[in-house]
Write a structure and sequence with these properties.
Number of helices: 10
Strand order of the largest sheet: 1-2-3-4-6-5
CATH class of one domain: Mainly Alpha
Number of strands: 10
Distance between the termini: 164 Å
Strand content: 5-15%
Shape: elongated
Largest sheet: 6 strands, antiparallel
Order of helices and strands: EEEEHEEHHEEEEHHHHHHH
Pfam families: Pkinase
Structural class: alpha+beta
Keywords: ATP-binding, Kinase, Membrane, Nucleotide-binding, Serine/threonine-protein kinase, Transferase, Transmembrane, Transmembrane helix
CATH superfamily of one domain: Transferase(Phosphotransferase) domain 1
Radius of gyration: 47 Å
GO molecular function, one term: ATP binding
Protein name: Serine/threonine protein kinase
């Protein structure tokens, strides 16, 4: 947080605290860096002299102190002391070291999606505590968020609304910052925790783009855009854009709750953090995609492909092509095949051996069947000839030509 020297008109001591530097100034007063006798540093806010006599501003200041007292947890700066009856009312909170979100983006540029989600998750959790205390901040914006080493802190509840409090706003009184106001604030309608959700979405968009989602311009132009135009989220990371868009819904009832925001942003922050610097193939899959299938890589992948090719029917109707596969990926025989046995050396034979053995077996069977068929055919022909020979008339015998008696 930027510090400035004390000016001549600034007090040097307020209550039990000695003031050392100026931390900033707002519409209601000036904030100083002070310390007590024990050395505890505080951020001490004093109402401006010209406003100290205005009862409305005194009431608003008292409201801020009341809101700070009601909120529990580490999301805000802890209230240390206050004096609402002094000539210039003041209160002191624990000093939070670190820049505001506005200054961090202005000086260092836009934040990565993982960092925006992480800050957003902590802020949403802080808003849960704020709203549980019955308080609506009404002016949540980058300059009211301090980035301490222990996490972001929400400050400046100057125009906060508490349950049961009356409305102090009148014409001409600022009730927030253009570009971060919710549409219901612009219309003058009742504020609810959803009002802070709208400002929360605009704040996340600023962290990711260094600009309001409704651009720049005069207060009138900005307020018109908030009520009537859609936000420009072109520069918001894809992981955050849907959630930010939901926060910026015109209808308060359509915005997510702070509990939903805290849970969802914590998931996004964890996922984005795991994805930083990791190889693309190792990035976690979305839950809807299910577990990643286990597939071989490298040489195993080639063997896997050959094995799948061998399983497909070949042109002869056999189980495959008989392609060669290395010993690391044994062939898977079809049910009709004889299981492959290991040889005497203990190593599995090549997967081509079953194919050659089957071919030899088929050749032997073919030869045997052919021989048997030939024998059967020959036997049938022999029997047929034998039967025809038995029924035929006897052939005339040829007697030897012997000399007979003369004259015969």
């Amino acid at each position: 947080m930027a510090m400035m020297r004390l000016r001549r008109e600034d007090p040097r001591v307020v209550g039990a605290f000695r003031l050392h530097r100026r931390l900033g100034a707002g519409g209601m007063g000036v904030v100083y860096l002070g310390a007590d006798k024990r050395g505890q540093r505080v951020a001490l806010k004093v109402i401006r002299p010209e406003l100290a006599e205005d009862q409305e501003f005194r009431s608003r200041f008292a409201r801020e102190v009341s809101a700070a007292r009601r909120i529990r947890g580490g999301c805000t700066a802890r209230l240390v002391a206050a004096d609402l009856e002094a000539d210039r009312p003041w209160f002191a909170t624990q000093y939070v070291p670190g820049p505001s979100l506005h200054d961090k983006v202005a000086e260092g540029g836009i934040l990565a999606a993982a960092e925006v989600a992480s800050i957003g998750a902590a802020l949403a959790e802080g808003l849960v505590a704020v709203h549980e205390a019955g308080v609506v901040h009404r002016d949540l914006k980058p300059s009211n968020i301090l980035l301490s080493p222990k996490g972001p802190r929400i400050i400046d509840f100057g125009i906060a609304w508490a349950t049961g409090a009356s409305t102090l706003t009148h014409v001409g009184t600022a009730v927030g910052s253009p570009g971060f106001l919710a549409p219901e604030q612009v219309r003058g309608a009742a504020v609810t925790p959803a009002t802070d959700v709208f400002a929360f979405g605009a704040t996340l968009a600023y962290a990711a783009t260094a600009d309001s989602p409704f651009g720049q311009g005069s207060s009138e132009v900005m307020l018109y855009r908030v009520v009537h135009e859609e936000p420009d989220l072109a520069g918001v990371p894809d992981a955050l854009a849907p959630l930010v868009h939901a926060c910026l819904a015109k209808d308060p009832e359509e915005r997510p709750s702070t509990v939903q925001l805290s849970e969802r942003l914590a998931e996004i922050a964890a996922r984005e953090a795991r994805g930083i610097g990791m190889p693309r193939r190792e990035a976690p899959l979305p839950k809807a995609a299910g577990p990643r299938p286990v597939r071989p890589v490298g040489r195993r992948a080639e063997e896997y492909a050959q094995q799948r090719t061998r399983r497909s029917p070949g042109p002869d109707g056999s189980g495959g092509t008989g392609g060669r596969v290395g010993p690391r990926t044994p062939a898977v025989p079809s049910p009709a095949r004889t299981p492959v046995r290991t040889g005497a050396s203990g190593r599995r034979p090549s997967s081509a051996a079953p194919g050659r053995r089957l071919l030899r077996q088929r050749l032997v069977v073919f030869v045997i069947v052919t021989l048997l068929a030939a024998i059967c055919i020959a036997a049938v022909q022999g029997c047929h000839r034998f039967s025809h020979g038995a029924d035929a008339p006897a052939a005339p015998s040829v007697a030897p030509l012997l000399p007979g008696p003369a004259g015969s």
